[in-house]
């Protein structure tokens, strides 16, 4: 899947890209996007059986080994040059998580932009996205690419019949499933040296409580924040890679005798 295909068919997330690949299918529970391969997609698996890498660097998070595929994927799809997929178990070559396959995302070069690039999007539920990117290749051969993206959405108003009582806001989840966040991406290349950094953060409101050992809820409204970092690396001469990811869950009381709980995992 190339950048030309992404532009031609209007894919806006990595999950939409994978949906068009033979043998892949995706789903979304309003919390995250999930991918299945040839009929295998265990509920609540958080894509742990897929290895997701960007320019050869593993970005499955360090807590649940989750591969982010939807709007939570930290890299803007407009910065993708191509997506390579290796099907089947590949543990011996690529390490853990490479059970159903490997997804390798290759980013664009600075020379592909050759200047400033601006883009904007608007959608339903007051959804907006803005991106500013700059890329340049200097006469010395050095290449620099900088990009920043901001996304926001008011979210959809939902009604849960099971929670229709005065103690739980009469089952209404107003503007839940909303999100506001962004990402930063930077690349510096010169001769045999390569330095790359990627940061993404997406606080969002979930219409249903997340599941897991560190989550507690009293109603249909909860909030989770999950940033993913890729720290600078030199993949040519340095073998030490550093990644950091974290989740914090905030449970919002729905009224009445409900309690509030907050759990943070570094």
Compact overview of the structure:
With 266 residues, the protein is mainly β. It has helices spanning 3-9, 14-19, 91-94, 110-113, and strands at residues 24-28, 33-37, 50-54, 57-58, 80-87, 101-107, 115-123, 127-137, 143-153, 158-159, 172-173, 179-190, 193-201, 204-206, 222-225, 228-230, 243-245, 247-251, 261-265. The chain has a 7-stranded antiparallel beta sheet. A 4-stranded mixed beta sheet has the order 4-3-6-5, with no helix packed on it. A 4-stranded antiparallel beta sheet has the order 14-15-18-19, with no helix packed on it.
Overall structural class, as computed from helix and strand content, comes to: mainly beta
Strand order of the largest sheet: 7-8-9-12-13-16-17
Q: Mind telling me the C-alpha Rg?
A: 20 Å
What is the overall pLDDT average? 78
The fraction of residues assigned to DSSP E strands is 35-45%
Main sheet specs: 7 strands, antiparallel
Proportion of helical residues: under 10%
Name the poorly predicted regions.
Answer: 208-243, 251-266
Give the overall form: globular
Write the H/E string, N to C. Answer: HHEEEEEHEHEEEEEEEEEEEEE
Distance between the termini: 35 Å
Total number of strands: 19
Number of helices: 4
Outline the structure in words:
The protein is mainly β. The protein is built from four helices and 19 strands. The strands form five sheets. It has a seven-stranded antiparallel sheet with strand order 7-8-9-12-13-16-17. It is globular and about 70 Å long. Residues 208-243 and 251-266 have low confidence and may be disordered.
